[in-house]
Amino acid sequence: MAFNDLSLPPVLPGDAAPLVATVEGSVLLPGDAGYDDERAVWNLNHELMPAMIVVPESVADIQVAITFAAGQHRPVLVKTTGHQIVGQAHGAVVIATRRMNDVVIDAVGRTARVGAGVIWSEVVEKAARDGLAPLNGSNLTVGVSGYTLGGGLSPTLGRSHGYAADHVRSLDVVTADGELRHVDAESEPDLFWALRGGKGNFGVVTALEFDLFPVPRLYGGAIYFAGERTGDVLRAWADWHPSTPETMVTSIAVMRMPSIPEVPERLRGKVLVSVRIAYNGRTADGERMVEPLRAVAPVVLDTVRDMPYIEVASIHNEPTDPVPYYERGIMLREFPAQAQDRLIELVGPDAETTLVIAELRALGGAWDREPTVPNAVATRGLPYSLLGVSAGLLSQEQQLKRSVAELLDGMRPWQGDRRYVNNLAPDEAADAAAIYGPERYERLASIKKTYDSANIFRLNHNVIPAA
């Protein structure tokens, strides 16, 4: 898998001149003012070094950029926020979509149409004005497009509605030939299937339309316990969550809180275990369901409450500014008592680990059901998603990676046979056939051959065009 093309020469100013004259937005080469700002990504330990950055104002700008890249045999990488970027993009043309951030809410039709550069906070805020909600992720600073193309595991509404990709109505996408295509179930069914779950392998999505749901509020938040009670809380949660309705989405996380001013003083430097709750139902019913968890051990902090949907980011309370970190995830096919014991050994209070968080998310429900219009999402039927995150500077890279690897390797006996592409590491040489499974991968590779036979969209967990 080629994450970068180190052999490609730099783009010369003379070569870029026709593009500069044509593009309405910005065309930036290394050393140009603004180049460093536009190549910055969310993970401060990751660096992009592209040959050129195009910051489009329009679809036409994207078409010109792709045509230029294809003519120079350069790969293309799309960046909104850069929460999940693969490789450093040496020799590549990066298309930074942040300026294409239109959001149109159809309150009657319960849909949103968003541009390529939109982040979830913008959708949540505008949809909430009409009492509607999307299938957003836990962190509202994440870009809508990349999250959705990778599947989209909503920790608020996903268990009752499925993956975000399941509810995409249509996409506008510029393919490797520079053509703008409006893609839906009728117009180009194969490409529509592949885009929803195939991540960034098939083109640059310039806009997408998806369903919204009438959810103005939730009963949600997190219950924190002392790390010493990790075993009690985890086992109680594992027994409790399977009997909850699909309107209850929940996860458990073991956290090692940093000693920084942003963390409340009583939590700094502590090991905590937290149960995250998002219940789309009556508050009284939510309180009744959650009460057995509250009784497991003394509660350190309880933020579970009735909240307007616009406040859902407070459930996971993730950073809203770029940070240095390393993360990677796997899917689990089961979580029996033996697996519970092993997880406690790996991340509990006595574990020698530098992980800042290990989160186990319970899936099932609508996540297991094929949507009316099937797509390429590969992880249906796998009941758990496990994510490990370590934080620290690039100088600690080997330790960061080792901490995550120790967790995931330790849980390998219960690992599922497919992967969730949005939880893969930026430098992880993941075999796309192993991510999607052989039958699904074969279909993706065939569609890739049709729409990107030269594989210019290869700076990702790459689906290689069929021979």
UniProtKB/TrEMBL annotation:
Signal peptide: none annotated. Keywords: FAD, Flavoprotein, Oxidoreductase. Residues 46-215 form the FAD-binding PCMH-type domain. Its cofactor is FAD. GO terms for molecular function: FAD binding; oxidoreductase activity. InterPro entries: BBE, FAD-bd_PCMH, FAD-bd_PCMH-like_sf, FAD-bd_PCMH_sub1, FAD-bd_PCMH_sub2, FAD-linked_Oxidoreductase, Oxid_FAD_bind_N. It comes from the Bacteria. PANTHER family: BINDING OXIDOREDUCTASE, PUTATIVE (AFU_ORTHOLOGUE AFUA_1G17690)-RELATED, FAD-BINDING PCMH-TYPE DOMAIN-CONTAINING PROTEIN. Belongs to the oxygen-dependent FAD-linked oxidoreductase family. This is FAD-dependent oxygenase. It comes from Caballeronia glathei. The lineage of its organism: Bacteria, Pseudomonadati, Pseudomonadota, Betaproteobacteria, Burkholderiales.
